[in-house]
Amino acid sequence: MEIIIKQDSREASHAAAGVVARLIHEKPNAVIGLATGSTPLVLYRELIRKHKEEGLDFSRVTTFNLDEYIGLEKEHEQSYHTFMWENLFSQINIKAENVHIPDGMVADVSAFCTEYERKIVAAGGIDIQVLGIGSDGHIGFNEYTSSFASRTRIKTLTQRTVKDNARFFGGDKSKVPHHCITMGIGTIMDARMNLLLAFGEGKAKAVADTIEGPVAAIVPSSILQHHPNAKLFVDEAAATQLKLVDYYRWVYEGKPEWQKDA
């Protein structure tokens, strides 16, 4: 696990975008797992800039999104389908047939989830999975006590997650769906690299538990300690509860030049 601490969310997101861009340059047909919510927005804006100003080519890239609310149509303003097209896909040259987002209106959820897993495998597996983190340590919508072996499936959101996400629904918790389709932790761990973003003091405890706490299902993100290539990009505020913060800075700043963006 590599901990990259930057001054603010912008610096952290731009550094993370550099990792994604390097993958696409080296592997034009890369498979990228994507997250939604406010955390990855600056990362997506930087990828859009790199596409428009530097020619970053998404024409052969395939994407798989982590999750989607059950009960929201694709056209709903708070669906993750709408989020992704408004904030990334419509502004880059990705092909629509290469975009995969769970369908929150599907009739047979179990069959859909099985097929979603099959498509990931058929695409060659995920090269980089972009992750945010909940204030309780959930990744995707894998709430606490989720199995570390879990695959794409239906999940019930915790009351805390519903409360946290109410801000996207005008502050009204009653409008937040209580169920979702999400990639499982086992699916996330199969990615060749996991790239997690965490910003703000509200994520500080979750970050500390993820990096320095015991690996336990009560903090789903802690499983990343066992991933062979996990990079955590955090800002100063999110790093405030880390005990070894000076060591993480020392390690990152002392990397050889050839390894800086690896």
Kindly list the characteristics that best describe this protein.
alpha/beta, 8 helices, Rossmann fold, 10 strands, 262 residues, single chain, 16% strand, three-stranded antiparallel β-sheet, seven-stranded parallel β-sheet
Could you describe the 3D structure shown?
- This protein has 262 residues and is an alpha/beta fold.
- The chain has one domain: 3-Layer(aba) Sandwich (Rossmann fold), CATH 3.40.50.1360.
- The chain is 32% helix and 16% strand.
- The chain is built from 8 helices and 10 strands.
- It has helices spanning 9-26, 41-54, 80-87, 109-122, 159-165, 185-189, 204-212, 245-253, and strands at 2-6, 31-34, 62-65, 67-69, 99-100, 128-131, 153-156, 179-182, 193-198, 230-235.
- The strands form 2 sheets. Strands 1-10-9-6-2-3-5 form a 7-stranded parallel beta sheet, with helices on both faces. The protein has a 3-stranded antiparallel beta sheet with strand order 4-8-7.
- Helix 2 links the parallel strand 2 and strand 3.
- Helix 1 (9-26) packs across helix 2 (41-54).
- The radius of gyration is 17 Å and the shape is globular.
Task: Write a compact overview of the structure shown.
The chain is α/β, with parallel strands linked by helices. The protein has a seven-stranded parallel sheet with strand order 1-10-9-6-2-3-5, sandwiched between helices. The chain has a three-stranded antiparallel sheet with strand order 4-8-7.
Q: Do you know the CATH architecture? A: 3-Layer(aba) Sandwich
Total number of beta strands: 10
Q: Overall 3D geometry? A: globular
Strand content: 15-25%
- Give, in order, the helices and strands: EHEHEEHEHEEHEHEHEH
Number of helices: 8
Q: What's the rounded overall pLDDT mean?
A: 96
Q: What's the end-to-end separation, in Å?
A: 13 Å
